[in-house]
Amino acid sequence: MTKAIKGFKPDFLWGGATAANQVEGAFDQDGKGLSTADMVPFIPKEKRGLSFSMDVTSEYIEGVLAGEIHDRYPKRDGIDFYHSYIEDIALFAELGFKVFRMSINWARIFPNGNDAEPNEAGLQFYENVFKELRKYDIEPLVTLSHYETPLELTRKYNGWYSREVIDFYVNYAATVFTRYKDLVKYWLTFNEINVMVHSPYTGGGVLVDKVPGKTSDQIAYQAAHHQFVASALATKLAHEIIPGSQVGCMLARMQTYPVTNHPDDILKAQEHNDLNLFFTDVHAKGEYPSFMNRYFADNDIVVNKEEGDDEILKKYPVDFISFSYYMSLSVTTHGEFEETAGNLIEGAVKNQYLESSDWGWQIDPKGLRVTLRDFHSRYGKPLFIVENGLGAYDKVEEDGSVHDPYRIDYLRQHIEQMKEAVKDGVDLMGYTAWGPIDLVSMSTSEMSKRYGFIYVDQDDEGNGTLKRSKKDSFAWYQNVIATNGEEL
């Protein structure tokens, strides 16, 4: 008789996740070059709609570099993790982290992306961080490219739209794999790779305005193909250079429901889900799914492949699938429903059964269980939730405390559904809550959209002491990890 699964496995990887461009700062120190993230300005709330583009133009970039445009670029400063990593990692250790997901900023290693030699100061910085994590027995989970394309690759090659960038990325991957082979076992190739089709600049440093006569989708899917090939080659290299290493892909999972049970709504939701899961299909199954042939034909998209590309994808699939999950989406063929704010997605409508965050993202814990079960059935590979959290306004009390029961409630409900999915038989490796420490928002460059268990004294204008302090959720998550998710 098969024994029922009761909870998370003993070696479950609990932790938190960040990105270099949102926490490090020091954008121009120790030989680092500019990245695409360094050119993304702060967008005040009054200038944003339900959905807005984070893409910038070539004219804008050249205007900034020429000193003709003077916006604020909060990701250049982050929360100064570059100088505070020892203090911050000590707090992560106090939380009980088993794993810390972070990224390497490519432009800190190769300032222009295609330099003949790497920047030693950048290599040493990450070595120091990894050793500090290892001091506390925290496993690094490292993303090679997390919205941090070296800016020079965008200016010279138009980022991932150019096939030449594959070789530069593979050289970068080989460099860091060789340097950190004794320090890092878990790697992710690209963060939220599907964001390429929603924001080509964010996802791949691609400037759509530099490719006249083609739609954003035509450009984005070509760039995504180059990333698929690069990811497969990086997976091959990791297995060769680091015995026992595990390499994963990473998807912004957008579980989509039909608003009604009208067959047209059901079909539309299925199409949305297929377009989302196309990216993990290629990574995990090693081939383009057949349903994309119809989509490409209907949208005049031709993906140019070189001889051998399909063989590379097939030969080097990822070891595990990781993803972000913040909310679900709902779509309909009927136009009478109110739109809601979505994660880069236009046309999502409100789900009447769900509550929303301060930023209009609809909170759907059970959707996480649905997502996990779907992934498990579709791929049969280990899964890793590498982003999940609640962006919210926090209030600092007179005594310095931050009471955030809303964050605790959000995370509790999602972890409960993770546990249910594990009981369903899902092979779940771990969970890294997004933003264990407050950081600069990816989409809006705000600080007021806070995720952390650790409060950082900095406001949207960059003012503050950067002092770290614990919120109520700190002790709660600490206990969750200590009890392996049994006490929520």
Global structural class: alpha/beta
CATH superfamily: Glycosidases
State the domain count.
1
Shape category: globular
**N-to-C SSE series?**
EHHHEHHEHHEHHEEHHHEEEEHEHEEEH
Distance between the termini: 30 Å
Order of strands across the main sheet: 1-2-3-4-5-7-11-12
What does this entry look like structurally?
This protein is α/β, with parallel strands linked by helices and 488 residues long. It has one domain: Glycosidases (TIM Barrel, Alpha-Beta Barrel), CATH 3.20.20. It has helices spanning 20-23, 58-65, 81-95, 106-109, 120-135, 151-157, 164-179, 200-204, 216-241, 263-285, 291-298, 309-315, 365-379, 405-423, 472-482, and strands spanning 13-17, 99-103, 139-145, 186-190, 246-252, 256-258, 320-324, 329-331, 355-356, 362-363, 383-387, 428-434, 454-456, 468-470. The strands form 4 sheets. The chain has an 8-stranded parallel barrel with strand order 1-2-3-4-5-7-11-12, surrounded by 5 helices. A hairpin with a 5-residue loop joins strand 9 (355-356) and strand 10. The longest helix is centred in the middle third of the chain and has 26 residues, at 216-241. The model has no long low-confidence stretch (mean pLDDT 95).
